Amino acid sequence: MASTNRFDSRLALFLAPLAAAASLALVGCAADDVTTLGDEDAVAAEGAAGLGLGARGADVRKVYEYLRRYGYFQNAELAEHYPDWTPAVSREPADPELFDEALEEGVRLYQAQQGLPVTGIVDAETHRIMQMPRCSHPDYYDPPSVVPTLDIENPYTHFGGTWSSTALSYKFANYTSDFAQASVRSAIESALFSWTSISSFSFSEVSSGENISFGFYTGSHGCTGGAFDGSSGVLAHAYSPGSGLGGDVHFDDAESWSSAFLETVALHEVGHALGLGHSTVSNATMYAYYTGTDTQLEDDDRAGIWSRYASYASPSGCGSLNAGQGLSAEQSVWSCDGRFQLKYQSDGNLVLYMGSSPLWATGTNGAGGDRVLMQEDGNLVIYNASGHPVWATNTPGTSNRYANLAVQNDGNVVLYRTGGGVAWASNTCCH
Ligand SMILES: [Zn+2]
Ligand SMILES: [Zn+2]
């Protein structure tokens, strides 16, 4: 819970700036780039740290240019590539080398967006974040046809519309030659799988008519989101849900891709393809900055995807909670003989009953539970409304993928592996 605590401690600091910024239409992006900063873009000079109101010089200009690049000030290139784009700050500094109130407003908005304490000063932490590789699409960009929202209790943001179906198809348009094709496929499919394991999405590969196309390109390749720029710099971009280019994910083939690197970038880009924007939570997959290899979705990513789509399918029939199905409060799965009831109670406890007698329970009452998911990764998990797991069978794994939970006529609740075999049981047999 360390990350949550850290976020909470920051929350009070940026309440006021966020409220002010809400009128500037905070939301996701239309075409999204992950970038490693080039030398010319980094606020690299040590002198930039500690700058505040009244400062002057070349380092002030670097801060201004950095913020301008990411959407805080007038920028003809952004205006050309992003429909209806406007800068986050409505006024320009009178002199790019003078740290005036306009630049201070930009720094404050930048700090709010990155989940930093809002000081208006390029302090050490702000300076450190400015050195890091990041997604190059502008902050505070509100794509057309999207109602701008930013709920300060939910650090994730939305990006464009949503898919009308959660059964999506994908295609590999081509591959990088950096490593084996089979490994390229599995890296990207692992990223897709991470999203399916905590949502109602499913993905199937097709040869044409796909929703999401994954491809590797170099230089100018016909995207309005921008040309790729060679090694480092821009790594990839993705489009929000829609037809045509909608949902498509492009990787810059000038990068030296490896499996874990590709999966990390793909996980972030697929989030955009599903309709998520950037998060202010620094350990979330949807944080704007690339912070190294990380192929795990975090609480905030789960809360984000659940805010846009159902987190699971409801169970149908008796005796089983299948992969991808789940229970919300007061829902149950019954054994087929009707003698046993596995009920997710509104108090957050998952309880197995024989008649009115409890046989087994997770003991999570009062833990703030929100839903139980039989995930496609083989893990049965109780989550709270913030996407934080509060109880789990801890049985995820490749051999457990698409496992199912059986509420048996003998009174035992058993989590079966895909190919048979018991991964977990309540050990309440036999009645
Ligand atoms: Zn991004
Ligand atoms: Zn592209």
UniProtKB/TrEMBL annotation:
The family database entries (InterPro entries) matched by this protein are listed as: Bulb-type_lectin_dom, Bulb-type_lectin_dom_sf, MetalloPept_cat_dom_sf, Pept_M10_metallopeptidase, Pept_M10A, Peptidase_Metallo, Peptidoglycan-bd-like, PGBD-like_sf
The enzyme's main class, written as a single word, is hydrolase
What Gene Ontology molecular-function terms does this entry list?
Answer: metallopeptidase activity
> Which keywords, in A-to-Z order, does the entry hold?
Hydrolase, Metal-binding, Metalloprotease, Protease, Signal, Zinc
Please list the residue ranges annotated as the Bulb-type lectin domain: 318-428
Q: What is its EC number?
A: 3.4.24.-
**Leader sequence residues:** 1-30
UniProt protein name:
Matrixin family metalloprotease
Native organism: Polyangium sorediatum
